[in-house]
Design brief:
With 337 residues, the protein is α+β, with helices and mostly antiparallel strands. The chain has two domains: 2-147, Aminopeptidase (3-Layer(aba) Sandwich), CATH 3.40.630; 157-318, Aminopeptidase (3-Layer(aba) Sandwich), CATH 3.40.630.30. It has nine helices and twelve strands. It has a twelve-stranded mixed sheet, with helices on both faces. It is globular, with a radius of gyration of 21 Å. It starts with a strand and ends in a 7-residue tail after the last helix.
């Protein structure tokens, strides 16, 4: 097996065939995923767009036939950007729709060779946090062997109604422009929770508040999305934001809305606030022509995992991450003196 730069003029057709085959296998496990990406022409168009701005490598066998490929980007969010809430300052990301290995070849050997080629340049240039998006299940194992671990889960469900008793004391309403400060405060409480052990997601509100408030103000007057507020005895106790889904289209069921920022104040957790917000989000999605919901949760957040999977969300994709010890640069022999 040899590795060379990904060449769209040579590799798109074979890469599309390999990726479409992978997606057909993914849909056997997760029928909720869109069927359109079983079509190689649809996959080819997606790959062509991604390859136009990503760095890519291709693995070929002894006959020169493509056996696998890997596309990724470098990320350098500035401290005040919204991306800084979830992205480390110098990181890389490999797309879920930007890699695949033929079923005829050893997936670990192929991914080992592909990642080796990309990672050496990234680490040389000081990019130490590497993230890869992979389908849930069998596709994860080669990356575990390369030192990656689960970080976020991407989960999906249909719009079937929730079972169980409705908590009448919780009132949910649509937030308006006048609620921006209330929503900001609730969101901040959620960030504080995610900064606690064992999740340890840095609370970046101090740096990103300005950008977040500006973006939130636009969202509160945008009819294509909604911020839902939960109240108990006149007090705001939770919030949920829902909008058209974005991300890797292969892992977004058709007509999907995405649940983004969610938060419930500490004293009101496990009292039915989250269920009330989810019921309201299902109703909003139904009323706006959607058929599915997606969301992302931190895998170290036991409460979130229990709540979302307990309410019908099934992980279909994971964000895996690996941090490279920064000492690799200054501890090299050729860097001494």
């Amino acid at each position: 097996m040899s590795v060379r730069p990904f060449d769209s003029s040579l590799d798109l057709d074979d890469a599309a065939a390999i990726l479409a085959a992978r997606h057909r296998g993914d849909r056997l496990r997760f029928p909720i995923l869109p069927a359109s990406f079983e079509d190689e022409s649809v996959v080819r168009q997606s790959l062509q767009e991604t390859a136009s701005f990503a760095t890519g490598v291709a693995a070929t066998g002894t006959e020169g036939r493509l056996t696998g490929f890997l596309l990724g980007i470098r990320r350098l969010p500035s401290p005040g950007d919204l991306d800084a809430r979830f992205t480390t300052p110098r990181s890389t990301m490999m797309f879920a729709h930007g890699h695949a290995v033929s079923e005829k070849f050893d997936s670990f050997a192929a991914y080992h060779a592909l990642y080796t080629e990309l990672a050496q340049d990234w680490v040389r240039d000081g990019f130490f946090d590497h993230v890869v998006h992979v389908p849930a299940g069998r596709s994860e194992q080669p990356w575990f062997e390369l030192g990656f671990g689960r970080h976020f889960a991407v989960a999906a469900r249909g719009l079937q109604l929730l079972s169980g008793e409705v908590t009448s004391r919780i009132e949910v309403r649509l937030a308006g422009a006048e609620d921006v400060d209330c929503v900001m405060e609730l969101s901040s409480s959620g960030s504080s929770f995610h900064a606690s052990s064992p999740i340890f997601m840095p609370d970046m509100h101090r740096d990103t508040d300005r950008a977040f408030k500006e973006e939130l103000a636009r969202a509160l007057v945008d009819e294509k999305q909604a911020v839902l507020l939960a109240h108990e005895k006149g007090q705001s106790v939770g919030m949920l934001r829902i909008a058209p889904a974005r991300g890797s289209a292969m892992f977004l069921p058709d007509k999907s809305a995405n649940i983004g920022d969610t938060a419930v104040v500490e004293q009101s957790r496990r009292l039915g606030v989250g269920s009330a917000l989810l019921r309201a989000s299902i109703a909003w999605a139904r009323n706006n022509g959607y058929e599915h919901l997606t969301l992302r949760f931190h895998t170290a957040n036991a409460q979130a995992r229990s709540f979302w999977t307990g309410h019908g969300f099934e992980p279909v994709m994971y964000h895996l991450s690996r941090h490279i010890d920064e000492r690799i640069l200054w501890a090299r022999e050729d860097s001494v003196g």
